[in-house]
Amino acid sequence: MRKRLIIGCFLITTLGSFAQKKVIKSEIVEDEILSDTLSVVDTLEIKQLQEEMSQNFLFKQRKGGKVVYNLNDQEYPAKVDRKWLRELTAGSLYDSIEAIIDESYYDSEVVYSELSTDTLKKRLADLNARTPFNIEYTPSLENVIKSYLKRHKPTLERLMGLSEFYFPGFEETFDKYNMPLELKYLAIVESALRPRAKSRVGATGMWQFMYSTGKLYGLDISSYVDERMDPILSTEAAAQYLSKLYDVFGDWDLALASYNSGPGNVSKAIRRSGGSTNYWNIRHNLPRETAGYVPAFLATMYIFEYAKEHGYNPAKPDINYFTTDTVKIKQTLSLQQVAAYTGVSFDEVQFLNPSYKLDIIPYVSDEEYYLRLPVEALGSFVANEEAIYATAKKELERDEATLPKYVENPTSVSYRVRSGDYLGKIASKYGVGVSEIKRWNNLRSNTLRVGQRLTLHPTKAVTSTASSSSSRSSSKKYVVRKGDSLWKIAQKFPGVSPENLKKWNDISGNKLKPGMTLVIAN
Q1: Active-site option among 142, 190, 236, 348
Q2: Tell me: the pLDDT tens digits for 341-359?
Q3: pTM of the predicted model as reported, rounded to 2 decimal places
């Protein structure tokens, strides 16, 4: 039980709704039930508070100079620890997986005494019997598996924890298409389960779709949204793509190889191998990366399936796929607003909604965009939907000049070569690969001539903002202090996101130096 002394102020209780108001004069409140639902409000703010109460939606509290919103029907405690989320979604995981694949082509023996060759052969035979993949024992596969066990246990153990959230959704999709459920392990090899992973050539998302392939399979890509980063929608597209590849080759190993390097490279490897259609027989004729790709997949499958035998103890996630749900968005909302209104941490909201590139869910009349939240928080959201949109609209109208306009990425553009251009420069500008530009335009060399027209299929949207030079001239300035981050600075300015700060100040990464002066165009 807590005691609180309240002198000359309004006492607002939130039981049920804002229906109860009492004027209290110098008294001690000893009601244990009410003590957690009281807000002490300065008398100067009574009028503003009454206006908010009339919305039957939320109320404000000031804590340490910061405004905190609370929904009146329930307070939802964040389920996912922020530190855990940051750890699981850290970039180091993806970097480690890239290194693992690069190391997967071994010519020398890897010594790992904890796993004998005979035990491995037996386990691989068991896996081969219960999966449609051709899991043959080879010395090179043994080296890959032992290297994983010897060098990458911490990374794989963390990924096992993260997989507890994603794998149920993957399995549901693959089961719908009558495909091997073990294909879920491919997302680990492709992206280390990072929804926003992006390769140097522009392949994006857990399943690493290029722009043109993503569009081919119906994924929406615009200035606000990239559904290649949506775990559910991208898995649906991956299932369709992989099933088509299987229809072509009639073999899952070859389908995986072609997913990585393209059907053309696999068919050439088959020809160069004298017509053999066994992956292990054509492996030496595949591109080096693909030669390590299928072994990386099989090694990942083996370690996940025999994790207990090797002493892996992954941390269980505090939230799982089945405890979340979605609601269709009826008006533009920022993820920061969602976090503020529902009480779910911003990290968790962003984790559950990775396809919104600018952390803003747009409203477009002929599109359907959804917000995913924990079930408990979603109920509060739906119960207060109208008031949430009304409040969010006022905030977004105030900051409208800072928001980029919704622009659909063009399927193709015509680019005129300028003086100083070269293929690498153009590829970087449009988020595509040099080899793709050459393929799209039938180029046999890297030579370009000024005035030449190129057809491009960009992965980067051309965005525009409503702000003008006049608004920029009236912008605020902020001097970076020690300990500042883009996120911390954005919180100091209502309606400003880290992406806004990066755009206004031409910042490509996330690093800031004390003493830097930032433009705040709000």
Answers
A1: 190
A2: 898 988 899 999 999 988 8
A3: 0.61
